[in-house]
Specification:
alpha+beta, D-amino Acid Aminotransferase, Chain A, domain 1, D-amino Acid Aminotransferase, Chain A, domain 2, nine-stranded mixed sheet, eight-stranded antiparallel sheet, 8 helices, 29% strand, binds 4'-deoxy-4'-aminopyridoxal-5'-phosphate
Length: 312
């Protein structure tokens, strides 16, 4: 369960956590009209640092644009708001959740005259699939649910409504005893997990589905592409047939929540040696050393959060 913090950012001002409420007839409640982000702030020796804050702010702006949502806040405004919010709430490490939604006005599907509300909340958060999964690997399945087809719900937008599909995938996996489900796209190629991108390794080479395979353009995915290049590991963005999963040497998920989590079985078929493989481990180590500030921030991914000075 999430532990409330003191303040939430609303349309440019801080309000109390308890006051961040919307009306039940807000457009978003009936029609899922929201776009949002999920961002991690890590504790480092130099203080808290937000991972790729600008890239997340940019994706939020992009998601709003796709849905004709007139977001009044710029990438710079949003990035500054993330920093101020973590600082005001005095957190050392946390998860940050910006949400842009269509609010209370008219109740028709056409959102004319419906106000846009922007909220940013943050709270302390641990490991998503549990700390053991980061080392041992997760047991996952291929979902019977297909990811949204192109021309239905746009996958490049991180929209609330997409997570109805994600919920189906995640709940089905859960009732069947798996940690997560991998969805295929509408052509039957591997797409992504309910909340993470996927990388498949065979013979020292890495494959990941392209953006056209109904995947979210993950910020962690992009970071893995850059980390792999820096380690001289070849990555190809290519369509991945389902059975390539079963014969892979290694597979891992990546995303803000799961960070870099190995997969040790798919549909009860053991992947490689059935535990975290060597390439996954090299990438995972480099990822954690950067985000936790124990290695130089060679890509400029961390935004430091200054300590909050209380106004008396
Ligand atoms: N795919 C989906 C469906 C997601 O929800 C997420 C999490 N935002 C990801 C991929 C990974 O994206 P990111 O690395 O930006 O968190």
């Amino acid at each position: 369960m999430l532990t409330p913090t003191d303040k939430i950012w609303h349309n440019g001002k801080f309000i109390k956590w308890e006051d961040a409420k919307i009306h039940v007839l807000s457009h978003v409640v009936s029609y899922g009209s929201s776009v949002f982000e999920g961002i991690r702030c890590y504790e480092t020796k130099q203080g808290p640092a937000i991972f790729r804050a600008r890239e997340h702010a940019r994706r939020l702006v992009d998601s709003a644009k796709i849905y004709r949502i007139d977001l009044k806040h710029s990438i710079d405004d949003l990035t500054n708001a993330f920093v101020e919010l973590v600082s005001v709430n005095n957190l050392r490490s946390c998860y940050i959740r910006p949400i842009v939604l269509r609010g209370y006005g008219d109740v028709g599907v056409l959102p004319k005259g419906v106000p846009i509300e922007t909220y940013i909340a943050c709270w302390e958060w641990g490991k998503y699939l549990g700390p053991e999964a980061l080392e041992q690997g997760a047991d996952v399945c291929v979902s019977s649910w297909t990811r949204m087809a192109p021309n239905t719900l746009p996958a490049l937008a991180k929209a609330g409504a997409n997570y109805m599909n994600s919920q189906l995938i995640r709940m089905e996996a859960d009732v069947n005893g798996y940690a997560e489900g991998i969805a295929l796209d509408s052509s039957g190629y591997v797409s992504e997990g309910s909340g993470e991108n996927i990388f498949i390794i065979r013979d020292g080479k890495i494959l990941t589905p392209p953006l056209g395979a109904s995947v979210l353009p993950g910020i962690t995915r992009d970071s893995i592409l850059k980390i792999a290049a820096s380690l001289d590991i070849q990555v190809v963005e290519s369509l991945v047939p389902r059975e390539a999963l079963y014969i892979a040497d290694e597979i891992f998920f990546c995303g803000t929540a799961v960070e870099v989590t190995p997969i040790r079985s798919v549909d009860k078929i053991k992947i490689g040696a059935g535990k975290r493989g060597p390439i996954t481990e090299r990438i995972q180590k480099k990822f954690f050393s950067i985000v936790e500030g124990t290695a130089p921030d060679e890509f400029g991914w961390l935004t430091p959060v200054p300590a909050h000075v209380a106004v008396v």
